[in-house]
């Protein structure tokens, strides 16, 4: 073996090792979901979809899924509205305290979800909102806002500033510049931001554990509660379905809105 | 209107100034632009021409001075109430609209009835030869087509003034020449008062009724293209417009109807006596390459200088020959054809006739030569 081919072999071995390391836990869970017996065994002893049926019919999961949809749709939508407004503010105006505002908007990326969830729990107690939808939606909205704001901000930043000038030059008032030029151009960013927010909210666990109750629990919380009592592959099946759903959402989002561009992963 | 009253100015700038912090963007510019005139703001980048245009469009607020359009002071009017059309260097076409909607945008903002919008847009599309492209997205158009859409969009609103911000600079050379002709035609057809910004002297000379040469935020000269070329006001204008030989600073000597330039190290040159220079003034003569020619064999007359051929730049119809002349430095001569390359190869001695009758003579301190 020459040195070059040895180096190439070493490189690809490393890549494969990293990718395996990243995906192995997920693969293990997915594989146990088709195990025919009641134990969470790995490797699986056969192939069965019985646990999928149980997952789809189990009342706690059904309700948790519905709860999740309600929370996710409300929280993501609110986050898009508020986050877009903030993104526009930061993009458009220079003002005192702009840096502070940005730092606060980005802060949920740094502060542990545990802290935020716990904080909302204490606040919820003070305002008699504990374990209600309002509290959960507000908590999720805060958690996903940085991602939405960033997506919209990036879209705004890529708009040629001369477009607004050209529109004004043609007689468009600031309101018309916003509604006819800036909003349509930033819409893909908003939609992409909404989808990211939806996926994050749908799978959020740590903060949700504090702010949900037994009747308002979201899917990850319901899964956690289930696995504390039972150790059968139903949870694996739910995981599998959740992963497939979110993957599909991301795939569609990338196709429809150029998610990579919206999130500034791709620069071309 | 009586014959003595001045023609109404479409645009009047009164001591317009723009400071950027401590830097001067535009320094107290006053200008009158006539109705239907094609006026060019010409200068190197950073000379303030685009800043001036931005203030007329209303995107920038002047630090001082006022801008009057059709007799109305618009200095503090918002850009969207000015009714001034503009074509941007990047065209700034709306990427989420097709060609028709781009052109119709301004009319729709003016709340024109639908049928009227359609009619006006159709006329603009015909004028700019964009028929068949109505439904195209602007990203599917070539540079020249995008340019036409930008022009159509700006003229369809029948603006009081049309501003063009280096609209040809993004096009390749052939297309640029063609668009120059089209711009000229458009101006003739619409009769719009047009302010054109460019750093390209060729575009400025071929398109303009008058040219405003700017440098470092200041107006250097306002003149017709021919005046500008023949009688530049200072060294900057002389060197910025076309090619020109700047002779070293000389002492101007006048004796009755005779005048002479005394050049240190190059003797005396006979100069035209009609200049307004006092005897003994320090002057600088500028001479176009077409006013320098090789001397004929045995030719005996004043203002023949001798030198050595340094280089030939063959240009097809003519040749620019650079000659190192004793005491004068490099002098360029423009000769028809390419014969000179054979008769006077590089390194050969050559005698040149300087046609100082066509030279531009400026006081030695009139403007720096830093173009």
Automatic annotation (TrEMBL), chain A:
Subcellular location: Cell inner membrane; Cell membrane
Keywords for the protein's UniProt record, in alphabetical order: Cell inner membrane, Cell membrane, Membrane, Transmembrane, Transmembrane helix, Transport
GO biological process, one term: transmembrane transport
Cellular component GO terms held in the UniProt record: plasma membrane
Spans through the membrane: 12-34, 69-91, 103-127, 133-153, 185-210, 230-253
Signal sequence coordinates: none
Alphabetical list of CDD domains matching this protein: TM_PBP2
Pfam families found in the cross-reference section: BPD_transp_1
Species name: Ancylobacter aquaticus
ABC transmembrane type-1 domain: residues covered: 65-253
Identification of the protein by name: Putative spermidine/putrescine transport system permease protein
Automatic annotation (TrEMBL), chain B:
GO cellular component, as recorded: ATP-binding cassette (ABC) transporter complex
SMART domains in the record: AAA
Entry annotated with the keyword Cell membrane: yes
Domain ABC transporter: 11-241
Keywords: ATP-binding, Cell membrane, Membrane, Nucleotide-binding, Translocase, Transport
Assembly and oligomerization: The complex is composed of two ATP-binding proteins (PotA), two transmembrane proteins (PotB and PotC) and a solute-binding protein (PotD).
NCBIfam families referenced in this protein's UniProt entry, alphabetically: potA (TIGR01187)
Family listed: Belongs to the ABC transporter superfamily. Spermidine/putrescine importer (TC 3.A.1.11.1) family.
Protein name (record): Spermidine/putrescine import ATP-binding protein PotA
Species of provenance: Ancylobacter aquaticus
Lineage of origin: Bacteria, Pseudomonadati, Pseudomonadota, Alphaproteobacteria, Hyphomicrobiales
Gene: potA
């Amino acid at each position: 073996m020459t040195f070059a081919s040895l180096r190439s072999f070493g490189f690809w071995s490393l890549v494969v090792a990293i990718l395996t390391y990243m995906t192995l836990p997920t693969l293990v869970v997915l594989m146990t979901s088709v195990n025919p017996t009641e134990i969470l065994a790995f490797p699986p002893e056969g192939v069965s979809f019985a646990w999928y049926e149980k997952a789809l019919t189990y009342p706690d999961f059904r309700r948790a899924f519905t709860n999740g949809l309600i929370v996710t749709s409300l929280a993501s939508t609110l986050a898009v509205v508020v986050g877009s407004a903030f993104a526009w503010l930061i993009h458009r105006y220079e003002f005192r305290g702009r840096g502070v505002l940005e730092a606060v908007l980005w802060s949920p990326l740094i502060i542990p979800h545990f802290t935020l969830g716990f904080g909302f729990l204490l606040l919820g107690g003070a305002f008699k909102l504990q374990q209600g939808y309002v509290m959960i939606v507000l908590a999720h909205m805060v958690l996903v806002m940085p991602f939405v704001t960033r997506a919209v901000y990036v879209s705004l930043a890529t708009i040629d500033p001369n477009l607004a000038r050209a529109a004004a030059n043609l007689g468009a008032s600031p309101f018309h510049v916003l509604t006819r030029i800036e909003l349509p151009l930033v819409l893909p960013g908003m939609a992409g931001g909404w989808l990211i927010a939806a996926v994050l909210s749908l799978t959020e666990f740590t903060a949700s554990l504090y702010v949900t109750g037994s009747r308002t629990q979201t899917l990850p919380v319901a899964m956690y509660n289930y696995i504390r009592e039972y150790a059968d592959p139903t949870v694996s099946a739910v995981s599998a379905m959740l992963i497939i759903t979110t993957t599909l959402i991301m795939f569609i989002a990338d196709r429809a809105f150029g998610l990579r561009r919206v999130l500034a992963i791709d620069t071309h | 209107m009586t014959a003595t009253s001045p023609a109404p100015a479409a645009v009047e700038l009164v001591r317009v100034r723009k400071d950027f912090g401590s830097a001067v963007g535009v320094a107290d510019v006053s200008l009158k632009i006539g109705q239907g005139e094609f006026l060019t703001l010409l200068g190197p980048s950073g000379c303030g021409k685009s800043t001036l245009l931005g203030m007329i469009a209303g995107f920038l607020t002047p630090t001082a001075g006022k801008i009057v359009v059709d007799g109305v002071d618009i200095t503090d009017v918002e850009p969207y109430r000015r009714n001034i059309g503009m074509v941007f260097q990047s065209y700034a076409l709306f990427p989420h609209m097709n060609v028709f909607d781009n052109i119709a945008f301004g009319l729709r903002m003016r709340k024109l009835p639908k049928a009227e919008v359609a009619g006006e847009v159709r006329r603009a599309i015909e004028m700019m030869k964009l028929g068949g492209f109505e439904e195209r997205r602007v990203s599917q158009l070539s540079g020249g087509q995008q340019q036409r859409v930008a022009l159509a969009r700006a003229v369809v609103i029948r603006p009081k003034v049309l501003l063009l911000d280096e609209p040809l600079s993004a096009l390749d050379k052939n297309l640029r020449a063609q668009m120059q002709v089209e711009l000229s035609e458009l101006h003739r057809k619409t009769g719009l008062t047009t302010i054109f910004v460019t750093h390209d002297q060729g575009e400025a000379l071929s398109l303009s009724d008058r040219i405003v040469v700017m440098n470092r935020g200041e107006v250097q000269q306002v003149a017709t293209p021919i005046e500008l070329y023949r009688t530049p006001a200072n060294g900057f204008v002389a060197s910025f417009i076309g090619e020109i030989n700047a002779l070293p600073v000389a002492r101007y000597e006048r004796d009755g109807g005779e005048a002479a330039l005394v050049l240190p190290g190059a003797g005396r040159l006979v100069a035209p006596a009609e200049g307004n220079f006092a005897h003994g003034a320090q002057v600088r003569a500028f001479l176009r390459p077409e006013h320098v020619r090789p001397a004929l064999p045995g030719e005996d007359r004043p203002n023949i200088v001798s030198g050595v051929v340094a280089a030939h730049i063959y240009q097809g119809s003519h040749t620019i020959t650079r000659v190192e002349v004793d005491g004068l430095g490099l002098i360029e001569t423009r000769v028809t054809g390419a014969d000179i390359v054979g008769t006077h190869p590089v390194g050969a001695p050559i005698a040149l006739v300087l046609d100082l009758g066509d030279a531009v003579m400026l006081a030695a301190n009139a403007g720096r030569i830093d173009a």
